[in-house]
Amino acid sequence: MQHLIRTSDFTKDEILAIFEDARAFKEGKLSKVLEGKIIVTLFFENSTRTRTSFEIAAKRLGAEVVNLDVGTSSQKKGETMYDTVSNLNAMNPDAIVIRHSVHGLPESLIGYVDCPIINAGDGRHSHPTQAFLDLFTINEYFGGETEGKKIAIVGDVKNSRVAGSNRRLLPRFGIDVNLVAPDCFKYEGDEFKQFNTIQEVIDDMDIVMSLRSQLERHNITYFESLQEYAKDFCITSELMNRKEFLLLHPGPVNRNIDITDDVLKHPRCKVLEQVTNGVAIRASILKKLIL
Ligand code: ASP
């Protein structure tokens, strides 16, 4: 049995096979392979896209989904996470999808279950299904040619788990990762080129991934207002016109802070394509882990 905690849980060949199934799913060619299966989702942090896309993916493949409402679960009566998960496991689900604010929590549950655990985001650490759908979107956009492409990941690279998963995944597919952030959001490592402004790198980039400032993970206020931050890090039509790059954002987008209103409608802005691909990738991952 396999779990998905981080992108390195899958080999390159496994990832390419996931992409093949995701393409089949998009073409309506994946049948109801998960008929009779039950997937439990447990979200301890907010979610729009990830939770819904897991549910839609599962249902399209014929599975049923049980969303535990953590706000009204017995954790409110003092039950530990491990007891909650052991009890869910005793009902024999076929997979458990979990999001939590604590780094490492999904992984720590592996010893308590007999089914795959899928990490849907753990604190600042990782968000593997997001990184897979990002890479899939890049791969489709460039017709399968990712080798040698350059990406600028822009914004709160320090606190974003999307940045975390992507900076570990994309280099495995030959993509050169550049991080662009103000000092307060800089990544604390030296494996990547880091820049202070988009202007310095934009002419060289094939892909720009804009990120939301992860306010829920800041314990101090870094900017008087996000408008201050936006002056230097918002993706504007001026940048779009300067260089032909693919623009991505994992969502939720802070409009006119991360990306301007008009750029969100630009044909090279693939934010909604990422959402569509998210369903296909999650369907493919559920199929791989459950069957
Ligand atoms: N939705 C993504 C996440 O859960 C990105 C974000 O929230 O900024 O990490």
Describe the structure.
With 291 residues, the chain is an alpha/beta fold. Helix content is 35%, strand content 15%. The chain has ten helices and nine strands. The protein has a five-stranded parallel beta sheet with strand order 7-6-5-8-9, covered by helices on one side. Strands 2-1-3-4 form a four-stranded parallel beta sheet. α2 (49-60) crosses α10 and α5 packs across α6. The radius of gyration is 19 Å and the shape is globular. 43% of the residues are buried. The model has no long low-confidence stretch (mean pLDDT 97). Aspartic acid binds at residues 121, 127, 161-162, 212, 250-251.
Identify the notable features of this structure and list them briefly.
291 residues; alpha/beta; 5-stranded parallel β-sheet; 4-stranded parallel β-sheet; 10 helices; 35% helix; globular; binds aspartic acid
What is the H/E string?
HEHEHEHEHEHEEEHHEHH
Distance between the termini: 10 Å
Strand line-up across the major sheet: 7-6-5-8-9
Radius of gyration: 19 Å
The main pleated sheet reads as:
5 strands, parallel
Bound molecules: aspartic acid
Tell me how many strands there are.
9
Mean pLDDT metric? 97
Fraction in beta strands: 5-15%
Which blocks of ≥5 consecutive residues have pLDDT under 50?
A: none
**Gross morphology:** globular
- Helix percent band: 25-40%
Count up the helices: 10
Helices and strands: which structural class?
A: alpha/beta
